Every structure is written in structure tokens, then in C-alpha cells.
Amino acid sequence: MNRKQQHTTLSNITLEDYIINNSANGWLLQVAPAITNYLQNLTSKITDYFTVIDWGNLLSNNNRQEGTVKFFNKTKRFGFITTDQKDIFVHISGLKDNIRQNDEVIFEIETGNNGLNAVNVRLANNHH
């Protein structure tokens, strides 16, 4: 059987028939464990790779935002920073510098229990 005839023959049978036919001669039964082992090793290597990455640092560098303090109430210990897209909640625990209304700030965004939170908030002119 030439290559073209073989291709035509394979394209006319279902995957289920192909597996049954090839399992009968033992080929698939020999290859399947090797494929399974290869995929398990590959999965393990991918998992190891992603656990080595410092995701916090990577995300924080790509997550840097700029905005203006809309208001901040020291007594209530929270406020909001306005960006081009929206207002972001900021709690006093997320501050690196003291801030007040209309200050230009840089910060990072984290997802909190109630939405987005500004963290590592610094005055823009004090940024190192």
C-alpha cells in the first residue's frame, strides 16, 4: 500500500476503529504508557517552572498605576485615588507616604474582599 492509499484508508475510519485495530496488534498498548509518562514529566517541568517565578514582583512591576488622591480621611483611615479608568479604594495600611487630597501618587493594585485596592501608595514626586 503506498502512502496516498494509506492516508485515504486512515481518513475513512473512525478514531475508535483505529484504536481498536492498532490495539489488537499491541502497538497502541506499548506506546500509550510512553506517551502518558512523557506528558506527566512535561507537566511536572511546567509546574516547576511556574513555581520558581516571583509572581508578586512580576505583577507589581506590570501593575504600577498613577493617579490623583480624590480624598483621604485619616480619621476613617481610607480614601480613593482617581485614575483615568476609575476610582480605586485605598486603606491607610496600603500607604508608604502620607497623602492628602489632590496629591499625585503611584501605586499598585491588588484585589481585596470588596474589589480593587491601591497598595504601596507613594507620592509621585518621592518615587525612587
Automatic annotation (TrEMBL):
Cite a single GO MF annotation: nucleic acid binding
GO cellular component annotations of the record: cytosol
Q: Which InterPro entries match?
A: Cold_shock_domain, CSD, CSP_DNA-bd, NA-bd_OB-fold
Question: Which domain of life does the protein's organism represent?
Answer: Bacteria
The record places domain CSD at 64-123
| Pfam hit, one | CSD
PANTHER family linked: COLD SHOCK DOMAIN CONTAINING PROTEINS
Q: Quote the protein name from its UniProt record.
A: Cold shock domain-containing protein
